[in-house]
Amino acid sequence: MGTVFVTVGSTSFDDLIESVTSVESVQTLKACGYERLVLQVGRGSLLPSADICPHISLEAFRFKNSIAEDIKRADLVISHAGAGSCLEALGAGKPLLVVVNDKLMDNHQLELARQLNMDSHLLYCTCRTLTETLRTMDLSVLQPFLPGQPKLFANFLDKALGV
């Protein structure tokens, strides 16, 4: 059973939860072979119930002590563009689709996602383009991000954020 794990970290990103549970996105995920959707919704106002996605198994929660097991069990991780969430998914060697919150001011998330995409470590989109990105994504182009090199990641962040 193909599993998609969605995380918003400790933030509120209801637009992502709405987008990924839309009829169009769920149908696209199903067509791609995914049968299970696990949502970590953080502080958002939405906590979807299983019955909103009748054609796919849905589980939703706000927080856990660790999402490492959810990431480990996932065949695809969809995440907000927070550095910690990206690093955790990439460190686990999981295909990663980052959804940038384009409503944020001074959006450093876009620079991070763009740089990691240019280096072929992840794919990225916005909530508006999520379904189309899911429909056309080619996960085989992604290259591993080698974990265990925090200094390199810190340098990468500095470069991506123009520090």
Outline the structure in words.
This protein is an alpha/beta fold and 163 residues long. The chain has one domain: 3-Layer(aba) Sandwich (Rossmann fold). Helix content is 37%, strand content 19%. It contains 7 helices and 6 strands. It has a 6-stranded parallel beta sheet with strand order 3-2-1-4-5-6, with helices on both faces.
What is the global morphology?
globular
Please give the order of strands in the largest beta sheet: 3-2-1-4-5-6
CATH homologous superfamily? Answer: Glycogen Phosphorylase B
Strand content: 15-25%
CATH-level-2 architecture = 3-Layer(aba) Sandwich
Number of strands: 6
Roughly what percent helix? Answer: 25-40%
Our Rg estimate from Cα atoms comes to: 15 Å
Uncertain stretches of 5 or more adjacent residues: none
Number of domains: 1
Q: How would you summarize the topology of this molecule?
A:
Elements: E1 2-7, H1 14-20, H2 23-31, E2 34-40, E3 57-61, H3 68-73, E4 76-79, H4 83-91, E5 96-100, H5 108-118, E6 123-126, H6 130-136, H7 150-160
Parallel strand pairs: 1-2, 1-4, 2-3, 4-5, 5-6
